[in-house]
Amino acid sequence: MPVCFIALCFKAVCNLTLFCFSFSKLVITRNINYLKEFVLLHTIFSRGKMEAFISIVGALAAKAAEYTVDPAARQLSYLFKPRSKFLKLHTKVRDLEEARQRVQQSVEVATRNGEVIFDDVQRWLTEVNGKISGQAATQMREDEEKATKRCLAGFCPDFKSRYHLGKKADKEANAIAQLLMEKDAFNAVGYLPVVQAMDTTRHDKEYEAFGSRSRAFDELMTALEDDAVSIIGVYGMGGVGKTTLVKEAAKQANEKRLFNEVVLVSIKQKPNMVNIQEEIAEKLGMTMGENNKDVRAARLRERLNEKRILVVLDDIWESLELEALGISCGDKQKGCKMLMTSRRLDVLESLNSQPNISIETLKEDEAWSLFKKMAGLGEESDFQSTAVEVAKRCAGLPIAIATIAKALKPKKNLFEWKNALGQLCQPSERNFKGIPKDAYSAIELSYTFLDAEELRPIFLLCSVMAHDADLEDLLRYAIGLGFIHGLNTIEASRDRVLTLLSDLKVSCLLLEGSRPNCFDMHDVVRDVAQSIASRDLHWLTSFKERTDEEKMKTSRLISLKNTEVSELLNHELDCPKLNFFSIGLKGSSMKISNNFFTGMQRLKVLEFAKTHFASLPSSIGSLKTLCTLCLRNCGLEDIATLGELENLEILDLRRSKMKMLPKEIGQLIRLKLLDLSNCSHLEVITPNVLSKLSRLEELYLYYSFDKWEVEGIENPRSNGGLVELQHLSRLTTLEVHIPYVEAIPKDNLFFGKMERYKISIGDEKWGSYDDRGMRTSRMLKLKVNKSIHLGDGIKHLLGKTLSLYLDGMEDVGKNILEFNNLRILKLNKLNRFSSSWYSTNTLQSSTCLFDKKVNFLVLEELEIRGMDNLERLWGDQLVEHSFSKLTSIELSDCPKLMNVFPLSMLTRLQRLERLNIWRCELLEEIISEGGGGGSSSSSGMTSLSLQFIQSFEFSNLTSLNLYELPNLKSINHNKMLTINWPSLKEMTLSRCHAVEIVFANSQDTSSQQPLFWLDEVNFPVLEVLEIRGMDNLERLWADQLVEHSFSKLTSIDLRDCPKLMNVFPLSMLTRLQRLERLEIWGCESVEEIIYEEGGDNSSSSNGMPSLSPQFIQSFEFPNLTSLILYDLPNLKTFVLGERVYISKSTTTLFGMPLQ
Asked: Where's the AAA+ ATPase domain (predicted)?
């Protein structure tokens, strides 16, 4: 190599070195000798003497460390200690991996417990996953190789790469150190969500505003609004409508924001104080871990005093010790108000309720009107006179009217109506306190009219179950008792039970449950049903005295829930006819006699719930006729004895604590259903146990065993393997988590036979939040960080899946089929997925997600997260009607996405109800004028003309949330476009920094770019508006707004808008009559909340009457109950509402100091 060329290279290196050392001026200014050495270095470098250069650089580095402050030393260390920087980074990454594992394990435990994971924990995990991903590891290795690489045949370090990459590694290590510090600050990873303590919307259809009830209802609402009233009573006979009326009152109180929380607890004839405490606590989001009743009461009392809480105790039969429960009202507990219902006035009076409001039966004309409506009778009917008499026999009780009217609705012959009237006129064989004989007869007649052979026993079985009972529990009981005839599979039986429940609901004998696949029953109907079951079938549902043990000898069903029966368990029970035995006492530790079951040789269904056993009695093995065994949450560890139950078909061991499924379970060759859900301690399934259960149809293992042994790794196997499922030819339902793809056998065709499934493959399970949101019976989640080959069985699952979650998969296009049945689709972190959903040969040429070969005819929910390469969602052409049933769209962390919908997509969004967009950095507009979504006629959808799009509206959209979109300027840039929002109730705009004005009309001449053009746009039902972190926002409202737009606002929350100077123009006040909550935080430029517009813009042209200063002096916010102004240093004036809280601001109220 020519010497001159080497010299030039050395000189270039010298110049680069000079540039790097210029970062530290202190080196030059503090020591002139150091500077001389630096000049000498340049001279020697010019002569090409590498050895001298290296030695002097070393000396120079030592002097730099000696004479410079830390920043200068740090800059030099990037040059001369890159290996130490990367060694530090490797150590931090390893620490982060270990910390992530610990946090992830905590998250999984919390999720299994039904907790909601904190947002900061989820964000931490998301950021950590990015730091330790395979892509990040590869990049770190490449950076380390570049930083240590030498140039010029290995003689000279690459100082430029060293400096930049060393600095990058140091910065990354510090960022990871910060993450580790954040992890140490996590006291917990989640919280138990506060369940909706009372469903205030469920009974809307049941409530009828009868004239005779208006006085009682108005009196109740007045009492709820009166702060001087602390305990309210409502009384009336059973079935008169007390609960329905109280729930409607609570619903309206909730709408008026009279209370922060509403809790409803149904009290039984024999109330259990501990259970009542726990139910109240659970609905308030509390966990009661104490055993001492006084301590529990004190905790509950303290919680009820925190806020304004309405506690509804429904159907009280006898006086309660409220203080012992932890419920105090009046002066002792100003935050709590209590509302009670009872069939007896004296019970309410003993509890010092005032007022006590009587609910009378319906007047004759009201009863007849309700009866006609429920029976579907017209004004003229051939048997109207008979129908009138039937209605009279219902005694004015809505529950009796509803049940008998629905029972007679299909009867088209006069003789059928006359026969019904004759039966109603016969004296009742039973009469309860508070239930007249006519009401009893009406409900009993409805029961008699149940046509299907299976309906009656199913109805009676429902009556012995708890409120909000689960369909699956009913199914397992019914199969065990033989109530379902002629069906051989559990799935067919499930369909049959669902049909029967639907029929009972239509007959008004059952109510909808508060959760999917649950049902409920009115207490009066329950009383009548249990009476019929006791009389006709010898069912026993309560144990009061020792003499009841004699009744057990003839009983066919015994259900003793929440009953103290420990004295029954210490000896053998003689129940030769018993088919069904159920017992449960929460938290009890029971010792059962070994001979307890000896006298129950006809037992078909056995249930113990929430009962802790030391061990199972040996006599359980003698129950040769037992078909269904439910031992739920019983703390069992050793279940080997169960292997003797040779005729068992259903085994339910949910939430048991055993660590191993023993080999004896393999002897249950008739078993059709095995439920091991939430058995979190289960670590071993004895090999070949599952494969022996040849008749198994349904296997539930979610939040339970997942240590599947990989095929061929260990021989003989020491644990259960998925390969065993190949031998279960009847298996059609499977709930299982498979953490390792390798555990899936190559021959996995058995997966394709599944009809109901909840399966997750990879290192993340379905969370409780996902589970609640999915609402489907075919759920599949794939979270794997490498390319996988899905077998034919998994591919068949994909084709049938209703809810699909793909997370972190590579080469996803190779594994995807068309999904004609898919209802819910969630995609997360498919970073290599840069092409269309349906993979073609042009994999790298397209940047849209969905193209014309995708067919999502029934897709309802779409969620897309962390798609780094996604630029467009929709291709230029789509299949006709594809995506037309979407109700929810959520997008987050798609940094290259610039818009969401092309104009031509709008016709497919008629059903859209929710739109949430988070952290899409390049997003500029929601709706673009570009192609996509079927802009040409070949797409199968009519293209949109500009004339059509001018009048488009999101007719069903109720919620719109836009978060952290720094480049978002508008919904769309077309000033001719008017989009109306007739159903929008909630809107949040957060950290959309490019927005300067939110609501403006198209005639606005300002230079500010509005987010919404509002020439004709209307928000007629918007209730909640939140605007946060808008750095450039200067104005909220234009001078002209559509009439009645924003007139239903109840809550406004403004935070961290530093350029905002005022909030409402005078002309806006007439739109704020319903405003209940106004919060303004951290808006440092706000000087006044209400301001007077300049010019003529405040005229009536805004669609609402203008307000003069004289008007504002008398204006009031009639519904404003909460006003928070916080950290507003320049606030000067405001109109005071009913309640004001002000902090960190020196303000005046029209010249008066704010108190």
From this structure: 228-485
E strand or H helix that includes residue 960: strand 959-963
- How confident is the model over 649-654, as a mean pLDDT? 96
- In this structure, of 403-412, 751-760, 1077-1086, the range with the lowest mean pLDDT score is 403-412
SS3 state of residue 919: coil
Cα 102 to chain center, whole Å? Answer: 24
CB 130 within 8 A of CB 140: no
**Taking Cα atoms as reference points, which of 642, 641, 660 lies closest to residue 651?**
642
Instruction: Supply the mean pLDDT for the chain.
Output: 77
- Model pLDDT, residue 867: 86
Dihedral, 840, 843, 845, 846 alpha carbons, nearest 10: 80
Q: Sheet containing 469-470: which strands, arranged edge to edge?
A: 469-470, 518-520, 511-512
Give the separation between CA 95 and CA 90, rounded to whole angstroms. 9
Residues 6+ apart with CB under 8 A from 1125: 1080, 1131, 1134, 1140, 1141, 1142, 1143, 1145, 1147
CA separation for the pair 682, 657 (Å, rounded): 7
User: Which of 479-493, 721-735, 928-942 is the least confident region?
Assistant: 928-942
pLDDT in tens, 33-42: 433 444 443 4
Q: Please state, in angstroms and rounded to a whole number, the distance separating the CA atoms of residues 429 and 665.
A: 48
| CB proximity list for 1037: less than 8 A, separation 6 or greater | 998, 999, 1064, 1065, 1068
Residue 242 CA from chain centroid, whole number: 31
Are the C-beta atoms of residues 658 and 676 closer than 8 Å to each other? no
pLDDT band at 89 (very low <50, low <70, confident <90, very high): confident
Tokens 């009559």 belong to residue: 1073
Closest CA to 511 of 829, 205, 884: 205
Distance, CA of 1118 to CA of 1094 (rounded, Å)? 27
630: tokens are 């439910």
Considering only 172-176, 536-540, 887-891, which range has the smallest mean pLDDT? 172-176
| Span 814-855, pLDDT tens digits | 445 457 788 999 988 876 544 444 444 333 444 678 876 677
The gap between the terminal CA atoms of the chain, to the nearest Å, is 86
Determine the pLDDT at residue 9.
Answer: 47
Would you list the DSSP string of 483-530?
Answer: -S-S--SHHHHHHHHHHHHHHHHHTTSSEE-SSTTEEE--HHHHHHHH
| Helix, strand or coil, per DSSP, at residue 96 | helix
* Range 37-75 burial, b when 16+ CB lie within 10 A, else e: ebeebeebbeebeeeebeebbeebbebbeebbeeebbbb
In sequence order, what are the residues at sequence separation of 6 or more whose Cβ sits closer than 8 angstroms to the Cβ of residue 1096?
none
Average pLDDT over residues 455-481: 94
What per-residue confidence (pLDDT) applies to 524? 76
For residues 328-343, give the mean pLDDT. 74
Distance CA 1104, CA 898 (A): 37
Residue whose structure tokens are 């490797």? 90
Sheet of 356-358, strand order: 261-266, 309-316, 336-342, 231-235, 356-358
Task: Give me the percent of the chain exceeding a pLDDT of 70.
Answer: 73
Q: How many Å separate Cα 704 from the centre of its chain?
A: 21
| CA atoms of 1137 and 1135, how far apart (whole Å) | 7
Whether 1036 and 1027 have beta carbons less than 8 Å apart is answered as: yes
The CA distance from 75 to 78, in Å, is: 5
- What's the CA gap between 390 and 396, in Å, rounded? 11
- 1065 bridge partner residues: 1091
Residue 805 burial (10 A CB sphere; 0-12, 13-18, 19+): buried
Radius of gyration of the chain from its Cα atoms, rounded to whole angstroms: 36
Instruction: Return the SS3 of 470.
Output: strand
* Overall average pLDDT of the 402-425 stretch: 82
Length of the chain: 1155
